[in-house]
Amino acid sequence: MSRRRLILGGLALPPMLAGCAASTTPAAAQRGALPDFADLAERVLPAVVNIAVSSEAQIQAPPEFRGTPFERYFRGRRERTQGAGSGFVIDPAGFIVTNNHVVGQAQRVTVSLQSGQELQARVVGGDELTDLALLRVEARNPLPAVGWGSSSALRIGQWVLAAGNPFGLGGSVTSGIVSARGRDIGAGPFDDFIQTDAAINPGNSGGPLFNTAGEVIGINTAIYSPSGANAGIGFATPSDLARPVIETLRRDGRVERGWLGVEVQDLVPEDPRANRRAVLVAGLVRNGPAARGGLRVGDIVVAINGERMETGRALVRTIAAVAPGQAVRLSVLRDNRNQDLTITVGRRPPGPG
User: Active-site residue numbers?
Assistant: First the structure.
């Protein structure tokens, strides 16, 4: 009998010889076998919830009808919108994590448990910059909950399990691997997504991404797809970024971030203005914290409180982590001369930018 290689799911399994006992090479067999997620799914699915949202708003007349007799047909008419997403329980007391874009400005949020029980949820708080939100439900009994894992421990190629409510169908799981880390998809200054090929579709937003230990290492947030459905490229917010945001929302109901009011761009060594990576001040908000503190357009920011700044994203993140009202020391290069500026950080205005 000839030897053959069997390809399953893109993985090459070692050939099996007729007459060989399986017990002779258990370690090799385990390394070549595909993982079985049944026990993991059974353990974590009770903590995964489906989220239904609804809102109602006044219908506005189209611009071409305003000021005409047709405008009266739109007066008093209201439009109801509905949506669906996913979430997961992090505390048996009823705290649930999801995406901010799932709940948005919803007037009514309904959480469905895997048991079929439906509970009305209250939005504790949301954060647009990281697209995270925290909900609270009141249940008669403690709810099944899952714990956080460390996304920094993830390795490319590691198996993961995504759970959620795709297309509003109810609790579902899909498996895949970590395709990449640290992805910037242009969603905002805090982009640091985990990329996975686990099938993620509309409705999965806000659902958990588990490691094989059953720990939440990401929150499924976005997909890349020309058709709007799964194309094997999904993005999840890392747990190491999400966890402190959720803890802040639970404590304060909102996230306040520092803000300088600057427009910046990266400088690389090839730029004649920089002999090493740094950040150029390309614009200033009038009367913003940086302008009031003496920063000028054309300044090159080298460090903040002694920590080197090599990219604009690093500068934005560093300042965002500073409490509004606190002073920071900016080391800048101006007219080929080094100098330090002390600037009082302001409060970042609302909005995703």
Answer: 101, 131, 205
